[in-house]
Design goal:
The complex is a heterodimer.
Chain A lengths: L2 H5 L3 H14 L1 H18 L4 H10 L3 H12 L4 H11 L2 H12 L9 H8 L4 H10 L8 H25 L6 H20 L4 H21 L2 H21 L9
Chain B lengths: L22 H26 L7 H23 L10 H18 L2 H18 L1
Helix pairs in contact in B: 3-4
The chains are: A mainly alpha, B mainly alpha.
Chain lengths: 248, 127
Amino acid sequence: MSNSDYFALTASQTRRNAMVDALRAPCYALGITMAGFSTIARESGFDFWMALVTSLGVWGMPGQVAFASLYSAGASLFIIFVAVSLANMRMLLMVISAADMMHLKSHNLPVWKRIFWMQFLAITAWANLGLAQQKYPPHLLLPYYQGFALTIFTFGILGTVFGFFLSDLLPADILRVVIFITPIYILLLIINARQKANRLAVLIGGVLSPIFFPFAGEWAILLAGVIGGSLASLYSRYIAKWHLEPVQ
Amino acid sequence: MASRAGAIGDDHGVETLMEDYGLFQSWLAVLCAIVGTIIWRIAGVILAARIPADGPIMGWVNTMAYAMVAAVLLLILVHPTGVLATTSLDQRLVGLGVGLLAMFFSKRLIPSLLCGIGAFALAIQFI
């Protein structure tokens, strides 16, 4: 399909395309990753409904894992709140970035609907939106996101349900390989971002976080994100002047 | 939070601190986790409507989002929790390196993903 063909698509055709994209690979890997969360949650003392409601309501793997481990350690509610907020703070940036990519303002949705749709945003859907942006015109990105994110969400929730009861379903070697898919898939997606400044940000943020981790712990993510993103922004704006180049 | 997320399996010291949550407290904990995430989504929706689309602030927010997601992923790969923690750093770096190289040369997502995953699968068998 050439770029002009994408322009001619309707919203529901776009939603269907997005579902097919999700069904190609990411949804299975994510389902099994969420099954991994469910196993951790069960070992931490969650009952089934708590694991399910956590996946439905939080829908952000790093925050969920932090929650389960703090719960197993008997941490106070305040600590749980602070740690999960910290682990999922990137949602703020991802939501703004996704709303920008989808030109959400132009769709004139009421605030509660915008929040409703953003509830399904997690790293995989956000990163895939960056890829779809290179093919689809802006007005079709909201339907694309809806189709993609809902498919991923469905598989994630199914993974949570099955993972709780069937944690030893896959042989260990296969499980290791499957769990490896999601982080690599997303890294490959974002390292290929359309804007050079964003690619540079991925590089700097990715290098900084393991360096910061030994002394900063969980704060390494926030530090690496802010420092890496700011350096990439400053470099692209004042030294490379990439924003003056036409986007290819 | 002295220990990182996945310390569940290897940090038996925490059991001495263990206190059981009652049913009500357990659900309050779930609520804390949900609210701790949803506040960012709501704040994101509200702020997104106020930041000019093509301005430098939106550019900065985007680079920080990319850098932060990369930071999360590299932390998962270098200091993993759960199942991935049973593999070695060398094995994971082989998978990552092969995937990135394939992406660099081919620019094609799914083939590069398969190269990276394949290399990781071989690495767990032979390294």
